[in-house]
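User: I'm writing a tutorial on reading structure tokens. Could you give me a worked example: one chain, its sequence, then its tokens, then a sentence or two explaining what the tokens reveal?
Assistant: Sure. Here is the example chain.
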Amino acid sequence: MNIDKQQILDLLRNQGDQDKAQQAEQELPDQVDTERDSGLLEKFGLNPQELLGKLGGGGGLGGLLG
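And here are its predicted structure tokens:
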């Protein structure tokens, strides 16, 4: 599944991890494929399956910020 890079950056920033967000901004493609880019996601402490649950099936960031 593809996820917009900005959603991932927002998630990292909302978790208070500015350093990882800045690094992810430089390294992630604009559209992140959770399968293809799973290694990159894990590098930033993000489990691709959990990410899908939070961003993909959970109605976007609303479920994370509430």
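What the tokens reveal: DSSP finds five helices and two strands in the chain. The first strand starts at residue 2 and ends at 4.
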